[in-house]
Amino acid sequence: MVDITVKIGGEAGFGIMTTGLLLGKIATRSGYHAFEYSEYPSLIRGGHNVIEVRISDSEIYSQKSKVDILLCLNLETFNLHASEVKDGGVIVYDEEKIAQDKIKKTAGNISFVHVPFNRILQEQKLPTVMLNNIALGVLMHLLGADLEILNNLIEENFARKSREIIDKNQTAAKVGFEVSQKSLPQGSSVKLTPLKDALPKMYISGNEMIGLASIAAGCRFYVAYPMTPTSAVLHYLAAKSGNSGMVVKHAEDEISVINMALGSAFAGVRSMVGTSGGGFALMVESVSLAGITETPIVIVMGQRPGPATGMPTWTEQGDLLFILHSGHGEFPKILLAPGDMEEVYKLTLEAFNLADKYQTPVFIIVDKYIQEGHQSVDKSKISEFKYPVDRGKLLSQEDLLKISAYKRYLDSPDGISPRAIPGMENSLHQANSYEHLEDGHTTEDAGERSKQVEKRNRKAATYLKQDFQMPRIYGDDNAPLTLISWGSMKAPVLQAMKESASHKFNLLHFNRLWPLDREKLKLLLSGLKKTLLVENNSQGQLGQLLTMATGVEFDEKLLKFTGRPIYPEEIIAKVNSIT
Amino acid sequence: MDNLKQALPKAQKNPPPAPVVSSSSGSLPSASKLHAAFSGYFPTWCPGCGNFGIWTAIKSAFSKMKLNPDKMAVVFGIGCSGNMNDFLWANSFHALHGRAIPNAVGIKIANHSLPVIVIVGDGDCYGEGGNHFLHAARGNHDITVIVHDNRVYGLTTGQVAPTAYKGFKSRSTPNGIIEVPVNPIALAVSQGATFVGQGFSGDMAHLTQLLESAVKHRGFSVVNVFQPCVTFNHVNSYSWYRERVYKLAPENHNPEDINRAWEKSLEVEEKIPLGIIYQVERPVYTDSLPQLAEKPLVFSEPVTDLEMLINEFV
Ligand SMILES: Cc1ncc(C[n+]2csc(CCOP(=O)(O)OP(=O)(O)O)c2C)c(N)n1
Ligand code: SF4
Ligand SMILES: [Mg+2]
Where do transmembrane segments lie in this chain (chain A) (predicted)? Predict the structure, then answer.
């Protein structure tokens, strides 16, 4: 069995992220599963960056604590992470940069590979940006992988550059390969021999997957203001607008972002916005506007640790209750929180249908951990997924011509009124931020007010009947302990389950967080033997939400709010301590 | 990939006709009929309020231009001005206070064949939504912004607006406002608006013509309209304006000359110009979006090859 973690660390600006990305891609092209996790400070140059790539021949869900190969591009990487290298592992370092005596201090059965990165650059007259290819060459040898795969990737990545640039990059890789061959001829103990019958895999980040899904959903307008960890959705969609025909707009602030999107949605275009907590705080008044005007919108809310600017490049699940309660007044909203890449794809697609169907804001709640990390996913799960577009009660021109006096906010048993778009004949209507009559005109009449409030509220009931799905149980149904978690923390829990190979616990994972079917959930939760809440925040927000909805309290909690994700090892330790 | 086509609204695949009333019989409704078509409820403004003049001028301009209430979009702000949502009946979006401009920009990007008009107050446009105003001007989004400049917040019962003269006493500034007023004209010209006009609700004929030119202008057009608030502003009354305003004409002003526009923008107190202060041509925002070359976004078919995009990650 192959299960190897490679950690690469160095100063920001040395292409460490690219090295990790390419390594993951080499692994998936060789048929392996891969999972990437990175840590970096909110700086452009300097500071300490690390990226780790876990590669396995069986399904993996998350990162782990122990490292097989540590590639140090600076002394700090060595100082901070050498202790994570497991027995039998390999440390790669530049002996000319990192003093010998400091390295010697590490005990244990660890092999050292000396790679003089800077000297190679000088001797081969290569620019510093090619350092990552030397590193990749080194890794290719250590992992017994085929250098050809790397050479092909270099060709593809630099297809639009000159032959000379491609040659230089490939030379860097070759030299790295040879140097590590000389230093440690046998390589590491793990070999990435290409797997024969492996299914073709994508290697993709959560942000890219959201972007890809929005294109597949027929989203035509994406508006955003850059904010980590969601900026890459903007970058991806902007880069692909030539293919997708989507209009991608970087607006002046988040208030404008959401209002532009509401304008375009009012005019009939599937629209999405993306942000993080601070930017979302600015949008909140308009979430309420979407609620009362009944305008469909998809909001990508990428969490990072707050309050305020908090820790911009780290991860947390601290905004669930903020999102739930966002927007003044009472109106329905739908909260989705995908737990892995496949869920990111499918729930993003679904978000657009739900927004159109319920004419109300729909949230895709993610976080740095799932947004910026790359993961492998079987290509067929994405490319073969059938998605029927449902635009709900959107009226066509023929429909409109059959209506005598069109009422935008017509009362209806399911709470949803037929929606016209401006520009069509007989479409005359008003989307009104004031409380309104069925025809859209402003009203303060008590009866009409109650009618519209009840109509809007009924959408939640309709959703529960037609679209709600219960949280999924993973693992042994009869396990004595149930871990309860949501969104991205599915990954470490499933990994912990796999690694402990025990039937001690199962996972109840929520990816639809609101509206909730209180009765069914109460029945389910109160029937659990023992519960452990697992959340990447300090206040157990899913726990609060479920208690509010069902009255059920939880026995134990594992809460982590250091800005780092929860590790499978921490889950196993917690489980062991309470069982 | 057929799925993607369903993401379009079910009906029109082609751009809707030009912004004139299309009638099945082939004959166009008369301007007076149209004027009536645009009329909603009778306004609830204070008797004598300058908003009546603006309302009438807007309806006259729209009907003279034969705009079709179905085939346009009007975005209203929040204020006495924005309350026109129930008095002017056209396809409309009643926005939040300060946010009408981004809604309008979004509508225009979604369907650039629709004329898009924004009706806002001075507090709404130059205060709460000031940032949006700057950026919409820069983008030369093809929308028309009609600002009701009454130098107060009418709807919230008489606080000072950013257009008030220094020293103006109001319920929020009983000792007089300390700040100097914003200069809407200079602001619009400097930020890239391509049509900047100034009107007076006490001169409806002139205002009607000005609004017509503004809506016809291709690009970001702003019309700052002096609107006496008879209830909360006892300084800037109809007679106060009548003593000061004068009309720009080809003999005394060339609106294409930015330096002349600057000069006019500084005439804010003793004599005040009315008319087109600045007008130039510049490509509008949507001209630079190749996605919109063939049809409006709302009717365009995604040209994507999803398989190709997926394979980029393999
Ligand atoms: C975010 C927000 N803040 C405050 C208000 C309250 N409010 C409504 S209208 C208004 C000011 C109106 O002044 P102006 O825009 O000049 O319009 P006018 O009434 O003078 O036409 C204010 C402060 C609001 N509706 N929304
Ligand atoms: S308060 Fe002023 S602006 Fe508002 S309706 Fe009355 S006169 Fe007009
Ligand atoms: Mg005002």
Answer: none
CA dist A116 and A183 (Å) reads: 11
pLDDT averaged over every residue in chain A? 95
For residue B150, tell me if it sits in a domain: yes
B161 contact A CB<8A? no
Q: Judge whether A125 lies within some domain.
A: yes
DSSP state at residue B202: T
Q: B229-285, pLDDT tens digit by residue?
A: 999 999 999 999 999 999 999 999 999 999 999 999 999 999 999 999 999 999 999
Shortest CA gap A269–chain B (Å): 5
Q: State the residue range of the domain holding B138.
A: 30-284
CB-nearest partner of B73 from A267, A271, A379: A267
How does residue A544 score in pLDDT terms, banded at 50, 70 and 90?
very high
Q: How many domains, chain A?
A: 4
Atom of ligand 1 nearest to the CA of B122: 16
Q: Which residues of A touch B3 (CB under 8 A)?
A: 218, 386-389
Return the CATH number at A171: 3.40.920.10
Handedness of CA A154, A155, A160, A164 (dihedral sign): positive
Q: How many contacts does A have with B, using Cβ atoms within 8 A?
A: 240
Does residue B312 fall inside a structural domain? no
Per-residue pLDDT tens digits for A17-50: 999 999 999 999 999 999 999 998 887 776 789 9
**Residue A230 belongs to what H/E stretch?**
none
Residues 350-369 of A with CB under 8 A from B: 352
Query: In chain A, what residues touch B9 (CB-CB under 8 Å)?
Result: 268, 391, 394, 396, 421
Decide if A266 and B306 are in contact by the 8 Å CB cutoff.
no
pTM for this one? Answer: 0.95
Nearest CA to ligand 2 atom 1: B154
Count of domains observed in chain B: 1
B120 in any annotated domain: yes
Is A389 inside a domain boundary?
A: no
Per residue in A485-525, pLDDT (tens digit) is 999 999 999 999 999 887 899 999 999 999 999 999 999 99
Ligand 1 contacts CB of residue B153 (under 6 A): yes
Domain boundary among A446, A466, A486: A466
The CA distance from B57 to B69, in Å, is 16
- B229 CB within 6 A, ligand 2: yes
Q: Is residue B305 part of a domain?
A: no
Contact A216 B303 (CB under 8 A): no
pLDDT tens digit string along B8-26? 444 333 333 333 333 333 4
Domain that holds residue A65: 3-183
- If you count them, how many residues does chain B have? 314
